[in-house]
Amino acid sequence: MSDSSLSLKKLAEKLGLEFSGNAKLKITHVCGLDSLQNGGLAYLTSPDGLASVPVPAGMSRHAGISVDEINSSQVALIVSPGVKHDEHNLIFSDDPLATHVEAAKLLHSVTPAIPGLSGKNGVHSSAVVSKGVKLGKNVKVGPKSVIYEGAKIGDNTILHAGVVIMSEAVIGADCTFYPNVVVQDRCEIGNRVIIQSGAVIGSDGHGYFQREGVNHKIPQLGIVCIEDDVEIGACTTIDRARFHTTVIKQGSKLDNQVQIAHNVSVGEQALISAQSAVGGSVKAGHHLILGGQSGIRDNVQVGNNVTAVARAVITANTQDNEVMGGMPGRPVSQWRKLQSLINRLGELFERVRKLESRNDST
């Protein structure tokens, strides 16, 4: 990650926002309130947070950091309009978090340069690109990457070291694939898709049938389609469909080590946390949220805006807007009541034992 710096005034101008304070203050990085250093830019969602920011007299609230090292004249804050404080350098935003993210993009380059390439485009000398491949403008292909016959790569897409794009796969524009990503044959990736290291798109689904006690493989003939603005975490696997398409719809974000089985459709703007799994042929609506190590059983229909808390397993069809907990999954209010009862089982067993002992003595 490479960094740059901007004056407070210039940064506010690039963000299209108003500011107050030292226009010439050099902003070098974004940070949180708990890690403020000189040149830092943090954000507040509540004006009350100003109380945690050091001022030029006395000691900082941050342990071990004195005002000689950090004070309000050397940092800036993104705050809601109407917040006034003469001792602080402020940028005013209706959405401080979103503005902080945009500032991070301006101050930090999050895509590392590919070694061995110069300029905005190029194919590393160790990469293998078949003759029939169609590369868009400004495509970068890193060391040891392999692109099979018939693949298409859109403009400005970056393939880091060791990426494999197999036959007739179609990759959109402005994508970034980190080292050792594999996209298997005929799969389709949209625009602005980010795939982290080690992810595999289009592996065979777990399809078998038994005859006389022997497992026989069922050919997986479909593809995976990943729509625009999706992000896939490291070592996540998405299986191709048996006949048609496994789909991850627009804007969905999958964490590391997630398993998506064959024939699945995940709706728009899903958030799926690490070590979660979605069974075969699941159809999930938009804004699905899966907590860590949660899952959905195969062939289940999941409504819109459904949440499964950590380690929950959805085992039956759901309505819209449900929050599920436990295994088997049930409305989280029911699950919490059951958990409360389970925590009292020792006490209840002891009460029963005493009652039984009392009855035996009589």
Q: Overview of this structure, please?
A:
With 362 residues, the protein is an alpha/beta fold. The protein folds into two domains: 2-109, 3-Layer(aba) Sandwich (Udp-n-acetylmuramoylalanyl-d-glutamate--2,6- Diaminopimelate Ligase, Chain: A, domain 1); 122-336, Hexapeptide repeat proteins (UDP N-Acetylglucosamine Acyltransferase, domain 1, 3 Solenoid), CATH 2.160.10. Helices cover 14% and strands 28% of the residues. It is built from four helices and 42 strands. The strands form seven sheets. It has a twelve-stranded mixed sheet, with helices on one face. Strand 24 (208-211) and strand 25 (214-217) form a beta hairpin. The longest helix is centred in the last third of the chain and has 17 residues, at 345-361. It is flat. The termini are far apart. Residues 56-70 have low confidence and may be disordered.
The number of strands is 42
Q: Which fold name fills CATH's third level, the topology of the largest domain? A: UDP N-Acetylglucosamine Acyltransferase, domain 1
So how many helices? 4
| Low-pLDDT regions | 56-70
